[in-house]
Amino acid sequence: KSGADQPEISGSTSKSQRMKIVKSSDDNEKKGLDKKLKDSEIIVPIVYGNIAFWLGKKASEYQSHKWTIYVRGASNEDLGVVIKRAVFQLHSSFNNPTRVVDSPPFELSESGWGEFEIAITLHFHSDVSDKPLHLYHHLKLYAEDESGPLSTKKPVVIESYDEIVLSEPSETFFARVQNHPAVIVPRLPAGFNMPPVPMEDFDNRKRGDTRDNPLSQWFTNFSEADELLKLAAARQQVNINMSVT
């Protein structure tokens, strides 16, 4: 589906990065119908990027890779509670380059040979924000180190971690997502007590729209908790080795 006028392939690879996207839900409070929660915020951790598989013997001059571009929860949570629609703007050489995904998982797959920038526009539910959020991702098909042979089994994965920060959210939105695993509520309104989280919510915390995604084995783990556990295990192993010697 990709034409011969795709941009030239580059060999460099962008690193995964962590940024914070500040998105204020300042939409005139729906003309006063939906009260805002002052001095509070909701954080939605997201990951966006692409995974690309070399087609091997099936590769041709204009069809060398199959790739998927996506926006997912940082731990594969269901982002549909916040995001209503994702629009992916592909290179103009593709048929129907503007692709709209109306439900999670927010992803699309294609095949081609060229690398190019993909614009991603996230549209939120009406109680979140009327303003869309624009992201940009440079599609990568080749690893940064191209000295070794290409492999059909190990894909190229390029991901970025971002945080959508919704300051002073509406009461309607807060009530709808306060116990949802896709969101983080680090600061509550003064005098406001969070209702207890049911045990089933804890059990479902790792369940989400990309939980059963066949590509999930390749996703990057951005969990700070997991990183701390790995660090603690490494330190424990060092202490054991020192005591043995």
Question: What are the key terms here?
Answer:
single chain; 245 residues; alpha+beta; 6-stranded mixed sheet; 4-stranded antiparallel sheet; 4 helices; 10 strands; disordered N terminus
Question: How does this model look, in words?
Answer:
InterPro entries: YEAST_sf, YEATS, YEATS_dom. This is YEATS domain-containing protein. It is found in: Nucleus. Its main location: nucleus. Residues 1-32 are annotated as: Disordered. The strands form two sheets. Strands 1, 2, 3, 6, 9 and 10 form a six-stranded mixed beta sheet that branches. β4 and β5 form a beta hairpin. With 245 residues, this protein is of the alpha+beta class. It is elongated, with a radius of gyration of 21 Å. The chain has four helices and ten strands, in the order βαββββββββαβαα. The chain has helices spanning 29-32, 171-177, 199-203, 224-244, and strands spanning 18-22, 41-54, 65-73, 83-89, 98-101, 106-112, 117-124, 133-138, 156-167, 184-187. The termini are far apart. Residues 1-14 and 201-208 have low confidence and may be disordered.
